[in-house]
Every structure is written in C-alpha cells, then in structure tokens.
From TrEMBL:
NCBIfam families: gntP (TIGR00791). The lineage of its organism: Bacteria, Pseudomonadati, Bacteroidota, Sphingobacteriia, Sphingobacteriales. It is a multi-pass membrane protein. It is found in: Cell membrane. It comes from Pedobacter roseus. InterPro entries: Glcn_transporter. This is Gluconate permease. GO terms for cellular component: plasma membrane.
Length: 429
C-alpha cells in the first residue's frame, strides 16, 4: 500500500509540473500529502519537512551561492569568451568539435547548465557561421559537455545536494566524476554527432562574427579564475587523503572543503577583476538571484526526501529490492531514471530518488558512487516535460523529431554510459 501511495504522490507531482505549477510549490504540497497518506501525524509531517529543508540546505547553500557568484564573475569578465578563442586557435577548423567540447567542460564546471548554455550558444553560432559547419555539429559537443558537468561534477546543484544527502566526500565525488565525464563527453559529444550529422551541412545562420578585439582578460587570468575551484578541491582532497600527519595537512583539509575552495576562488576572482568592486558585487548579486529558485527547489526536494525517509519508505524499497540480486548502484540508476522520465526535472528526480535509495548505501555502494549513479539516472531520456529539451529545440530551430533524434538521444547516451562507468569504477574503489 505504501508503494501505491508513493506512486500516487509521484503521479500528482508529475501532473502539477505539467500544469506549470512551480516545482517548489508542487514538491512541498506533494510531500505533505504523501506524508499524511502514509499515516504520519500532521505535526511529524511538518517537522520532517523543516528537517529536510534544513539538512539539505545546511550542507550546500554556501557552495551553491559562492558557485553562482563565481560563475557570474567569469561570465561578466569575458573569461569564458577568451577560453573559447584560445581553444579555437589551438585546435583549428578540422578539430573544432574538440575545442567546443573542451570549452564546455572548462566553462561548465563553474557555471550552472542554463547559464553555461546561454553564454556559449552565441559562440557556437559564431563558430558555425565562420567555419561553415552545421550548428548542430558544433552545438552537440557543447551541450554534451554542459550536461555531463551538470550531472556528475560539483559544484552543480544536483551533485552537491546528493553529496550532502548521502554524506559523500565532495572531493572524491569530483575526482570520480572527472574520471567519468571525460570519456563520456568524448563519446557522446564527438563521435555521436558525427554519426547523425553531415559535417559539411550548410550552417544557414546569420553572419555572426567572432570579435577578438573585445576588451577580454588575458588567457592566464581566464583559465586560472575558471578552474581554480576545481584545482583547490582536488589538491585538498589528495593532500588530506594521506593517513599520516604532516605540517601542511590541516591546510589541505581546509582546501578540500568546497565552501573554502569557492570562497578563496571568489576572493581571487574579485582581486584580479579590472572592473570596480561595486560592479563586481553587482555581478555576484545577479549570480545569486539566478539560482534563488534552484535553491528553493532543492530545499523542497530535500523536504520530500525527508518524508520518504521518516515514513520508512526507503526501508520498504530496500526490503522489496533485497531479493532482486541487483547492484544498489544499478537500482539507484533505475529508480532515478524512471523519475526523470516521469517528472522532467533532473534535479527534482535526483532529490526524489535520494530518499528512496539512501538505505542502499553500503559496502557495495560507496556514497560517492551513489551520487554519480543517481546523477547519471537523472539525465536519462530528456523529453517534452524538460525545460532543457525545449531550450535546445528552440535555440537550434529543430522539429520535435529532430530534437528527439539529437538532444534526447545524446542525454540518454550520457546517462547509460554514466551507469556503465559507475559500475566499472565500483570494481576499483
């Protein structure tokens, strides 16, 4: 009966989202209704919601906020454009897909998906117009790179939220995520579009021009500011992983904390800005505003997650799946993928699944790999109930059939390859 109630709750959530109800409101309402139907007293339901919001945001709100500030500073300073120009010159027209893919990975790490897409899409059009290559041939590598970083790499909202829920080490999650992201991005972003798109297809675009005479920051400053958070977290994780004590270990432990790494990165980015501090502070404020609703949706997802935990639903799922002889990592992916197809939002699907699969964490399913497994599942089969689907369709002026053939297939490929990669990593960690 409890599973039927859960299915009803998920169906209700799906209907509310289809009716254009804000996902935060939908998640909170469904969390309350589901908790009451599962027999929880009203006071306990509201306590669980408060605890879920507090525990979810408490572990990640500063990471998300500082990450948004960092991304907006990089965007407004022109560092993202400088990185693109450098890579285009380095790779040339013949290998332009590799340049765009690498750009997406570099720029996508500090930027949220929607922001990264909006920042890079004019450059994709400009490259397409300049080289005469199909905009999809150039654009799919960019979208793949942003999708991969969105699903697997902190400081994006999904991985950070899941790491907090699963009590996973963010540094290890980032390292494992990088190990997955690079080969997956190459397969789905380079070889997949070459199979489905003719390279010499006419661009059919307006006459965009790449203007390198803009007042852009230097290459060194661009790369340092864009990648500094990642380098600090990785260095801190490696330096603090040694079992023995040494003089500099406390410093590495400090750097491994994503809040500390991002705070240092934001301070350095502010220090090297050519604009005034007042204008840089405006960029920081705009960055935070851009993710305010994302944070609220994550908080509401945390509330729904807590209802599932406190009602015993996670244990029910664990008992029912105990005899299936499936890897917990595979099961987590299947549950998340099902929710993704149903609900549309990758973040909502991941957070909803987290409360169901949390009890599955154990010796055969390290928390860091559970984060990546759920992250992979959250990218599965993006279709008409996903805003990313429509963004890709409208920007590239595609029909529904063409969008399914390109965007949906690419997302599904990334998801399945992510699952395979997680299962392979599990044999070595």
């Amino acid at each position: 009966m409890s599973l039927l109630i859960l299915l009803f709750g998920i169906l209700l959530l799906f209907i509310l989202i289809l009716k254009k109800i804000n996902p935060m409101i939908a998640l909170i309402a469904v969390a309350i209704i589901t908790g009451l139907l599962l027999g929880m007293p009203a006071t306990k339901v509201m306590t669980s919601i408060s605890n879920g919001i507090g525990s979810t945001l408490g572990s990640m709100v500063m990471v998300l906020t500082l990450g948004a500030m960092m991304g907006k500073l990089i965007e407004d300073s022109g560092s993202a454009k400088r990185i693109v120009f450098i890579l285009i010159r380095a790779f040339g027209k013949k290998n332009i897909q590799w340049a765009v893919l690498l750009t997406g990975l570099l720029v996508g790490i500090p930027l949220f998906y929607n922001a990264g897409f909006v920042v890079l899409i004019p450059l994709v059009f400009a490259i397409s117009a300049t080289t005469g290559l199909s905009k999809l041939y150039i654009g799919i590598p960019m979208a793949t790179a942003l999708s991969v970083t969105h699903g697997f790499l902190p400081p994006h909202p999904g991985p950070v939220a899941l790491a907090g829920i699963f009590h996973a080490d963010i540094g290890k999650t980032l390292i494992y995520g990088l190990a997955l992201s690079i080969p997956i991005a190459i397969i789905a972003g380079i070889y997949f579009p070459r199979l489905i798109i003719k390279r010499d297809q006419a661009a059919n675009l307006q006459d965009f021009k790449i203007d390198e005479e803009e007042n852009l920051p230097s290459a060194t400053r661009s790369f340092i500011t864009a990648l500094l958070p990642v380098f600090l977290i990785i260095a801190g994780t490696i330096g603090s992983s040694f079992k023995f004590d040494y003089i500099g270990k406390p410093l590495f432990v400090f750097l491994a904390d994503p809040t500390a790494a991002l705070l240092i990165s934001v301070i350095i980015a502010l220090a090297v800005q050519k604009t005034s501090i007042a204008k840089a502070m405006e960029s920081c404020a705009e960055g935070v505003k851009s993710i305010a609703m994302i944070i609220l949706i994550i908080a509401a997802g945390g509330a729904f997650k807590q209802i599932l935990i406190d009602s015993g639903m996670g244990e029910t799922v664990k008992q029912l799946t105990g005899g299936l002889n499936l890897s917990p990592l595979l099961l987590a992916w299947l549950i998340t993928a099902s929710l993704r197809v149903t609900l549309g939002s990758a973040t909502v699907a991941a957070l909803t699944a987290s409360g169901m699969v949390l009890p599955l964490i154990g010796p055969g399913a390290p928390p860091e790999l559970m984060v990546l497994s759920v992250g992979a599942g959250s990218l599965m089969f993006s279709h008409v109930n996903d805003t990313g689907f429509w963004m890709f369709k409208e920007y590239f002026n595609l029909s529904l059939k063409e969008t399914f053939r390109t965007w949906t297939m690419m997302e599904s490929l990334v998801s399945v390859l992510g699952l395979v990669g997680v299962l392979v990593l599990n044999q070595f960690v």
